[in-house]
Amino acid sequence: MKINMKMTFRWYGERDPVTLAAIRQIPQMSGIVSAVYSVPAGGVWPEGEIGKVKAAANAAGLEFEVVESVPVHESIKLGRSERDVLIENYRENIRRLARVGVKCICYNFMPVFDWLRSDLARVLPDGSNALAYDDTAVLSLDPAKTELSLPGWDESYSKAELRALLDEYKAIDEEKLWENFAAFINAIIPVCEETGVNMAIHPDDPPWGIFGLPRIITGDQSYARMKEINPSARNGITLCLGSLGADPQNDIAALAKKYADRIHFVHARNIKITGERCFEEAPHPTICGSLDMYGILKALHSSGFDGYIRPDHGRMIWGESGRPGYGLYDRALGAMYLQGLWEGIHNSEGETRNAEC
Ligand code: DNO
Fold first, then answer.
1. What is the pTM of this model?
2. How far is 351 from 357, CA to CA, in rounded Å?
3. Cα–ligand 1 centroid distance for 115 (angstroms)
4. Lowest-confidence range among 22-26, 214-218, 275-279, 348-352?
5. What is the mean pLDDT of the chain?
6. Atom of ligand 1 nearest to the CA of 110
7. Catalytic site residue 267?
8. Does residue 154 line the site of ligand 1, with CB under 6 A?
9. Catalytic residue at 240?
10. Is 301 noted as a catalytic residue in this protein?
11. Catalytic residue at 259?
């Protein structure tokens, strides 16, 4: 059985306060998860820029095999007439990334907003702070006015553009979004087959509709439908524990087993559900939150998971400041916890680990 999942770490490029040298010092870190950040959604990434990310990673002794994200332009999600050109650009990005050794592309199909939180620095009892979500607080915001800003958002829209975009989505229900998803994925999977790149869709975060926008990647039924639309294993999943776990209906260990052949990437973090549609991001260990991290990793292990995993959002601890969720220290603790769990699970199943530090 193949058991060597690869531990990775997200890096936001040269302007990330977390350095590659620091990432390299986390034991068993195989590589970075990154992107070309200078090109707006929909554009073709210059090969030189892709090469720079790879060169920087390699110079630090790290691989660059996972991209997060190649963003999907809103016109593709909306099914506007210019989508064909944009899909062709996306196909070209896959080819270019494959040429430098990228094997997995994480993306999402969430309209307008990427992940959403109501609080970027909720103070926890231990004095650290973390991201938190409260549905009532979020729904009381006017999305076209709010000054909230998250690292994953496309902030290139003016308020007027954002309002127009939100209006345009009024005509897009979940069925229409699925149709537009199908047109997209069916056009790109052939390029993935040619190049050997795996697509790994990120679930909607949180996994329910917000501000009247449709959201379709929320759990078991979504994955079954994706598979029906395009059966290629390249049409895969990023199993994001914190996103899926915000809905207690999602049995993530069961999903890990059921969709084992298409889980190419795992975002591992824990959340503490604090009420109906409310949660705080918690330290990675099972005991600190609502998710059974051990059970989920065990399910991945027993299914032979050998893809990429990264510790997801961490708290801000030890006085660190930086991108909400993406500091160094707590994510590094997360990476160590996950490796400890994995090693324990592996050894308890009677096999030896042969990876070297
Ligand atoms: C948040 C991230 C997401 C993710 C995208 C993938 O921390 O997990 O922003 O990168 O949704 O496209």
1. 0.95
2. 18
3. 6
4. 348-352
5. 93
6. 11
7. yes
8. no
9. yes
10. no
11. no
Taking phi over 0 as left and psi of -120 to 50 as alpha, with beta for the rest, 279 belongs to: beta
- The CB of 68 under 6 Å from ligand 1? The reply is yes
Catalytic residue among 104, 192, 240, 278: 240
Give the torsion sign (CA, 295, 67, 236, 323).
positive
So where are the chain's domains?
6-348
Of 68, 131, 199, 217, the residue with max ligand 1 atoms within 8 A of its CB, to mutate for a pocket test, comes to: 68
For residue 144, name the pLDDT band (cuts at 50, 70, 90): confident
SS3 154: coil
Q: What is the pLDDT of residues 261-296, one digit of tens each?
A: 999 999 999 999 999 999 999 999 999 999 999 999
| Residue pLDDT, tens place only, 79-133 | 999 999 999 999 999 999 999 999 999 999 999 988 889 899 999 999 999 999 9
Catalytic residue among 16, 119, 135, 312: 312
- In what order do the strands lie in the sheet containing 270-275? 119-123, 129-134, 278-282, 270-275
Say which CATH topology domain 6-348 has: TIM Barrel (3.20.20)
DSSP 213: B
